[in-house]
TrEMBL record:
Name assigned to this protein: Glycosyltransferase family 4 protein
Keyword Manganese: no
Annotated organism of origin: Sphingobacterium chuzhouense
Pfam family name, one: Glycos_transf_1
Ranges of residues in domain Glycosyl transferase family: 239-375
Length: 419
């Protein structure tokens, strides 16, 4: 069946709750219509610990062949030491700065220079540390025509992609965060043969920050299809259009701590809206408990229930500062549900500006104002806005256009299109 493609991603599975990982899975399934697609991944389910969860070896998921390799856990002390080095926060730096001789010592002895061993320890500790996956790429690189690597920050990409750089397509899922400016990643965007960005803002970020980036690239994103599975009724305790919804990992890294603080403040200050709930769908990784009568944690749910909840929401809320696309925001818009997003995330804010729908917030005051706006909108206003949101997705995120771009990228990497 045509060319053989390997997709390399840190986690893979129907239960995996992550945007890049879901992107990898649906892309694999779509590309399999034309190519022989295999996935190289780890046995991890959880991205905090990278503990081995799935069985080693080969399995099939939705008719895609998946090869799983074990992860090896590293000592947290090495992680802490490496983190201080790459972020230039070694303990004795504070002392040198306090007594006014830091700059002299750095000029004279290059004390902020990050050592190769520190970079290596960072990548191993960042994980998932899976040397057998990297060895497989090294030993079997010739049997694949193209490798597609997901996510700039993790070990399989940073260590594995240079082994097959001439036949690799890189999907960075990058965003403006402190990590991207550190030493381990300074050359990563010059390694692949081709980069496939998710958004214009991601492309601008990389090309402005990394002057030695690969010049061959395109912007594809993903295709968003209307969910066609069986419908499901809402739970009896949940009333349609009487709630806002967040779907994704429930953790601080996604801004959920601030979301919960803001929503509880909103309820405390606006008791007249107490019937409007905040529903959170996804695994709860928050260590701090935010309990309130208006907050409902659903945990991991089926696709049928997820879409039932999505379609009956007043609006979605995406509080994350760091998104490279936000599939769930687009899925909501495709279901005619407007989005309330964190204005400080350029990718999310661009969805709002370009679609002419939804709204954004950058403070408690603007968050509360956004909720009031959607609580007071009439059914007709919500319907009109929903139609505009759906049109935006249809015009910008179709699988037909996405796959055409990937086919062109694969043709370039394999030599069918000349440099």
């Amino acid at each position: 069946m045509g060319l053989k493609i390997a997709i390399v991603v840190q986690r893979y599975g129907l239960e995996v709750n992550g945007g890049a990982e879901y992107h990898a899975r649906i892309l694999a399934e779509k590309l399999s219509g034309k190519y022989q697609v295999e996935v190289l991944t780890t046995t991890a389910l959880d991205y905090y610990s990278w503990d081995n969860h799935y069985p080693l070896g080969e399995e099939s998921i939705n008719e895609i062949k998946v090869y799983r390799f074990a992860t090896i856990k590293q000592k947290s002390k090495k992680y802490r030491t490496a983190k201080r080095a790459i972020f230039k926060q070694k303990k004795y730096f504070k002392i040198l700065k306090k007594i006014g001789i830091f700059d002299f010592f750095d000029r004279r002895f290059h004390i902020t220079e990050v050592k190769h061993s520190e970079i290596e320890n960072w990548l191993i500790s960042q994980g998932p540390y899976c040397p057998e996956l990297v060895n497989y790429i090294k030993s079997n690189g010739r049997q694949y025509d193209t490798f597609i690597f997901f996510t700039y920050r993790f070990y399989p990409t940073v260590v594995g992609m240079p082994l097959v750089s001439d036949k690799s397509i890189f999907i960075p899922t990058a965003h403006d965060e402190p990590l991207i400016y550190t030493e381990p990643y300074k050359d990563i965007f010059s390694v692949p043969r081709f980069i496939m960005y998710n958004t214009e803002s991601e492309k601008r970020l990389i090309e402005n920050v990394f002057k030695n980036h690969t010049k061959h690239s395109d912007i594809a994103g993903v295709g968003i299809n209307k969910y066609v599975g069986e419908g499901q009724a809402l739970p009896d305790s949940i009333e349609a259009k009487k709630y806002f919804i967040y779907i994704g990992r429930v953790d601080k890294g996604k801004g959920c701590d601030q979301l919960l603080e803001y929503y509880i403040r909103f309820q405390q200050e606006n008791p007249q809206y107490k019937e409007y709930k905040l529903i959170l769908v996804g695994k709860n990784d928050m260590t701090e408990c935010y309990e309130h009568p208006s907050v409902i944690y659903m945990g991991f749910v089926s696709e049928e229930l997820k879409y039932a909840l999505l379609r009956s929401a007043r609006a979605t809320i995406m509080p994350s500062l760091y998104e490279s696309l936000s599939l769930v925001t687009l899925e909501g818009m495709n279901e005619k549900i407007p989005a309330i997003v964190n204005k400080k995330c350029e990718v999310l804010y661009e969805h709002i500006l370009k679609s002419g729908t939804g709204t954004s917030y950058d403070s408690l005051e603007s968050f509360c104002s956004a909720l009031k706006t959607y609580i007071t909108k009439s059914d007709e206003e919500l319907k009109e806005e929903g139609e505009k949101a759906k049109i935006y997705v249809a015009e910008n995120y179709t699988w037909e256009s996405v796959l055409a771009k990937f086919e062109k990228g694969i043709d370039f990497v394999t030599g069918f299109i000349k440099d």
